[in-house]
Amino acid sequence: TAIExxxxxxxxxxxxxxxxxxxxxxxxxxxxxxYLTAAELFAEAAGQATTSAERLHHLLRRVPCLLMVGxxxxxxxxxxxxxxxxxxxxxxxxxxxxxxxxxxALIFDQELAAAAPVVAEAxxxxxxxxxEPFTYQVVHNLAVTLSSYGxxxxxxxxxxxxxxxxxxxxDRQCTYANMSLAFLHATLDAGxxxxxxxxxxxxxxxxxxxxxxxxxxxxxxxxTALSVRSVLLGIIGHNESAERDAVAATSVGxxx
Length: 256
Fold this sequence. Notes:
By secondary structure, this protein is mainly α. It has twelve helices and two strands; from the N terminus they run ββαααααααααααα.
């Protein structure tokens, strides 16, 4: 149990191990696609946190899990609380992530004009983040938001930045998968034929990288990469391979 000693929170080794186990179980649940359990465990981890930064981190990890099971109102409420607290304590990584999540909700509701200043602020604050591994998830998440908002070049720049910050194969797999989706969107928007060919090539490369059998398997990342590669193969006329990837993506998706 945490106690106060000289004004600082002290946690016994047993408590620290128990907290770490909750987080590990939450991550494992998310990786296997059990998002409701993951959301509950991240909430538990947030309740056990001994610092504001730790609590905000776990609350933010909870939000995508809530969205995956359709709990949109609860996700919005959690995000709003994080934005308010992050502003108060000047936790820039948490503020960027929470602003990105607020933008995601506005984009989902087709409130694109309202999303514009939120996206702009998130991008501005993100420029102040240090190039350190602990900012990986924040940078990656903002890249996903920019891609969904249609800012594909800016999103691809942030995905490239997040790849340099990633320290695990699981993180790299997720980044490659979402980067491939951004490349696909950029491909479909490209007006120049040469530019489109280049983007197809780059998208194929990163989608295949996300399917590296040596990587830790993230179900959602694998499903995304297979779906993207199926579309890309169809674009270049490899219809049998495209159908094979589409079937595989459906099979993986049924595991969630």
